UniProtKB/TrEMBL annotation, chains A, B, C:
UniProt domain Rieske: residue ranges: 7-109
CDD domains: RHO_alpha_C_DMO-like (cd08878)
UniProt GO molecular function: 2 iron, 2 sulfur cluster binding; metal ion binding; monooxygenase activity
Keyword flag Nuclease: no
Keyword Metal-binding: yes
Species per Swiss-Prot/TrEMBL record: Achromobacter pestifer
EC number, UniProt record: 1.14.14.-
Annotated keywords: 2Fe-2S, Iron, Iron-sulfur, Metal-binding, Monooxygenase, Oxidoreductase
Alphabetized Pfam families for the sequence: Rieske, VanA_C
UniProt name for this protein: Toluene-4-sulfonate monooxygenase system iron-sulfur subunit TsaM1
Amino acid sequence: MFIKNTWYVAAWDKEVSGDGLFSRTIIGTPILMYRDSNGQLVALEDRCCHRGAPLSVGRREGDCVRCLYHGLKFDATGACVEAPAQPRIPPQARVRKFPVVERHRWIWIWMGDPERADTALIPDTQWLDHPDWRSQDGYIHYDVNYLLIADNLLDFSHLPFVHPTTLGGSEDYAAVSPKVERLADGVRITRWTIDTAAPAFATKVKQWPGRVDRWNIYNFTLPGILLMDSGMAPTGTGAQDGQRVDAAEFRGCQALTPETETSTHYFFAHPHNFAIDRPEVTASIHQSVVAAFDEDRDIITAQQRSLSLAPDFKMVPLSIDAALSQFRWVVSRRLEEEQQQTSAIIPITPSREVA
Amino acid sequence: MFIKNTWYVAAWDKEVSGDGLFSRTIIGTPILMYRDSNGQLVALEDRCCHRGAPLSVGRREGDCVRCLYHGLKFDATGACVEAPAQPRIPPQARVRKFPVVERHRWIWIWMGDPERADTALIPDTQWLDHPDWRSQDGYIHYDVNYLLIADNLLDFSHLPFVHPTTLGGSEDYAAVSPKVERLADGVRITRWTIDTAAPAFATKVKQWPGRVDRWNIYNFTLPGILLMDSGMAPTGTGAQDGQRVDAAEFRGCQALTPETETSTHYFFAHPHNFAIDRPEVTASIHQSVVAAFDEDRDIITAQQRSLSLAPDFKMVPLSIDAALSQFRWVVSRRLEEEQQQTSAIIPITPSREVA
Amino acid sequence: MFIKNTWYVAAWDKEVSGDGLFSRTIIGTPILMYRDSNGQLVALEDRCCHRGAPLSVGRREGDCVRCLYHGLKFDATGACVEAPAQPRIPPQARVRKFPVVERHRWIWIWMGDPERADTALIPDTQWLDHPDWRSQDGYIHYDVNYLLIADNLLDFSHLPFVHPTTLGGSEDYAAVSPKVERLADGVRITRWTIDTAAPAFATKVKQWPGRVDRWNIYNFTLPGILLMDSGMAPTGTGAQDGQRVDAAEFRGCQALTPETETSTHYFFAHPHNFAIDRPEVTASIHQSVVAAFDEDRDIITAQQRSLSLAPDFKMVPLSIDAALSQFRWVVSRRLEEEQQQTSAIIPITPSREVA
């Protein structure tokens, strides 16, 4: 079961290009995406209303797409505008059209009620195409439910265990509980380390006058969007008070989009504002992240296999689970709300009598 | 759910040969086929009545087959005639025997009540071994339900879209609705094109005095047998009135036999009565058909995948679906009839009282 | 459904060695096995109580194991003794510990109530490490339910059919019914052949004065342990009366341990007391057995596939099934007993009223 009235990341902008037809399954529904002659995005259900063939193996005809099974042609609103030997097209001959918006390199799709698709709700990921920041595009396909990955992203304590040589840090790091705050539709995790040595990777890319203050601030919001603000600045320059002087910063952008109940799309990039004229630094940061995410995928996939053998498994909650427990609660509440809204519009039937 | 009281094509004659044991699953039941010492076909359930081992991994002993697990020996009637350490064989020690008939290169099997296995019901496919006709044997295995393939065969409109460079023809072709007639156990589709140019492939194999009349007449009957009569004759020689003068004709024979609910055996050949002394023409016709069928398989398999993700999908019917809708109705009616017959022989139990 | 209060063979001793973490699924539960610093075996559920990750991809720390997802550390009793950022470990933070015992090269595990894990119940397999006997270690993984393999081991009649060139013997062999006796928790099968020629393999390894008496005595007990006593002695030396003079003997040890409902671990060895200074004889005996077991696996796997297509299949019992029918009855009775014991400890709830 998935939240419907929310913006999901459907693709990197470059994945939907030219005259191509791009297909990706989002929360269980196959979606066809393409660009019209003005470059505007179109997102339609990738399943012909006639006999169910995927439109994405069809062909573009101008701003329309033709199913290459029986030749039905659909325009960018999803309406069937041509069918062989069918002078009058029945009005129900249409495929569903989805609101879709392009913002800072990501394509966002709204899988719920189109009336409620407010683009003001789209999270700000400006660092993905800002001239003062650099990053590489990342995508990983996971064969696990998206909530297991959300658990992982909401937990700092696994870093030294899963990523000892990549993101890692010392195992003491796991012992310091970060600050966890509830947001309207998610959770914020904040961790500051004041007056500490600059880590090895940072001394390679920048000169530091002495010790530094480091921060990690995660905003994790529905449906599964993680915006990270992390970095370091020389101690005493007031970073914790909001001043960022001579800072080396990251603005990680990560999005989990469920494909099915047991698979997930994972989009990510880690823009940085230092050494932006050195592509090898950008590549190195990206490679470190990818290596760490591969480690995550290994353990999470093993976890999913283990859990699938034990459907009645009850997790023993620990204090390190504060953030992920809160996020799971936010997800559950939203799902309940959507279900109540759905049942509210079901017409009332007269009560049945029992003899 | 499958129709039982009908003849299914089980194999090409050459597939069951010599001393071999041939196994194929038909409507969910594994069938062992072999020839006795007189060359007569035997069809038995391919599952030993003792512990369920497949007899087809056993061995021939004269006209009998011995299970190579515990050594039970069955004769050609399915009766167990020998069992180790078992002087008296219990009468229930037998496997089911199925009526099986060889006709014009195809082996037909009756999966229902043997009493009703009337060989007069077997469709005529005389062109498969007639000296004036030539063809090559075809077989394709499909991972889809047989009705999706029946839909495809009953629809002409997909030809220009799925087969633009093989069977194809222009897309206008799809726009002309063929004549559809209900048969007792199926449907007939007829299409005539009068006074048209001979197609490219026809001019290569035969001289034509001028324009031609072309026809396509499909008889599609239960359980999934398509007999095609198609061809062309010089315009004005009266083809549409039943005269076939200097005609180039095909008599396509195609049979769908469900293997399971999600897989199908597809037997086919396309006998032609022209250029029968040129094997390369026969081979070329066969290759064209195989290439087209591979295209069909691609789109139908994509359709099955798409439909499997959407169990509640409702197809939007169009006028091009007339033939396939009628055939699906014929299938449903026959299934209902068989179910009523089955339930009619269930003994009546006294009604239960409810306190 | 599996019997719980019984000893299962979990591994060969050498499989659990050094600092390693060994994982094997036993009756549906993943088990982590390792040796502590004294070489004592530890068996824990291989699933972290926190978020379900497998401990076997974690790491040893002294006699403890640390989960390499979030860093929980468990001691050899299964108790969590360390968790990041968690000064007080909740008492329910533990994984299940299983009684485990090493005896004559095999590691035995008790999957039921630990209070009832009486090591006196472990079958005697002393021949596996006795200085007067030699054997090689065998293990095969089967993709079938363990009862189909038990059926096979309890049946002598398949030998000439499945193993004509390996274990085989003549087909007449199958025609002699062995003596079958019920044991408290299993069945004993006894077959004697008096005054017969020594078989070919026996004349290669030993001089025989003349004809021999041969015996095969199988003790097959819960959960699936086969101890074979087979061999031959010169006729007239009183073997059948309990004297074993100049005998060539085997003491086959075989254990079936269900992995899941559809897969099984099969441990085996065939100790012999002749030619023990000729390793090539031991190797040759082992190879013959492995070749025969591969033949068994082929036919049993085919049988399982065949049965899986026919869930309502009713086996026709024959007299050769006496032993396996008795063993299946013993299994069923024990399963029922365990279910009654389980339901007996469910607290009685007040009856619900119906309005």
